[in-house]
Amino acid sequence: MSAEDQEDRTEAPSEKRLREARERGDVPRSRELANVAVLGCAVIALKATASNLGDASRGWMRDALSFDRALLDAPDRLIPHAASLMGGLVRPMLPLVFAALAACVLAPMVMGGLRFAGKSLTPDFNRLNPGRGLARMYGKESLAELLRSLLRVLLIGGIGAWVVHRAFTSLLAMPGASLEAAVAQGVDLTLWALLAMVGALGALAAIDVPWQHFQYRSKLKMTKQELRDEAKEQEGNPEVKARVRQVAREMSRRRMMEAVPTADVVVMNPTHYAVALKYTAGKTRAPVVVAKGVDELALAIRAAAQQHRVAVIEAPPLARALYRQAKVDQEIPVKLYAAVAQVLSYVYQLRAWVPGRGPMPNLADIDVGAEGAPDPVNKPTP
Question: CA–CA separation, 262 vs 277, rounded Å?
Fold first, then answer.
């Protein structure tokens, strides 16, 4: 990544970018945390099992230095005897080994969790590029690693010098002490030296862990254009979404216009709203809205209804109420049953009326109450 590209990357990485990095196995790692975790757990396990380890060591030394003359007459017992000695040497060390292995698992979990990324096993031939190799060797990361190594050496060397200086008198007195006392004093001195070393490395890890997190997020920073592109990819391109909505509206309109000829009645405003209703006795509990629209679509619904000889009734309050509350392909609301029943009754009477045989049916005023109040935002013209 060039310096100019890095300067343009001023935005924090998105969750998608962080997730993709984790899937590639690219997570923050701290070598100092791993060192202090392994060494610290091993030292704690050693301090907790020091007495048992000492007893086991003395027993092992006694068995290893004793000689059984019977082995000379049975050479086939030499290998089992050697294996037994090796087992006696390994068993006391198992707590230390398990503690170190547990630390190897816990340290990555603290930083970024345990992840198996198959992509990290894929060969990356870019790593064979000499130019990139030189850039890594003399880059900022290499300089930071050099500083950490120098600080690590200074810390460990300083701790060692401090421990030796503090125990110098005890070290001079050890040759005159008994073997067991000298060994115990030496082991105790070693344990305290290791604990001091763990404390120093822990201080270094406390500095390195936040630094690694900062470096990791800085490496994954994004440009403003990358954020916009990612937002478009996740939410969809606005032009494509607009086109999809337009196609959906056209399909819905076409489907409604095809259903208008099957309707029983079209209730209108008379020009701003139009709702086509169909009632099938025995199949639906109430009339179903097969089409509805405003303005140009309302006029198209009325034209289709007139073309196919579907009754068109002008009832502005009912048309407004049906348009606002009813949905296409669903039954009308219960609160509008009475008003719609009045309209359908009128339509059925009109179909059955024969000119010259009685008076022509009249539609009485339809009362829908507050349901048909004019829309305060877009008040239609009656």
Answer: 9
Q: What is the largest CA-CA distance in the chain?
A: 141
Contact by Cβ (8 Å): 211, 148: no
365-374 confidence digits (pLDDT tens):
676 665 555 4
Domains and CATH numbers, the chain: 3-233 (no CATH), 251-372 (3.40.1690.10)
pTM (2 d.p.): 0.45
Residue 189: HSE in the Cβ half-sphere, 13 Å Cα cutoff: 19
**188-242: per-residue pLDDT in tens?**
777 778 888 888 888 888 888 888 888 888 888 888 888 877 777 766 666 767 7
Report the side by side order of strands in the sheet with 311-314.
288-294, 273-278, 265-268, 311-314
Residue 340 contacts residue 287 (beta carbons within 8 Å): yes
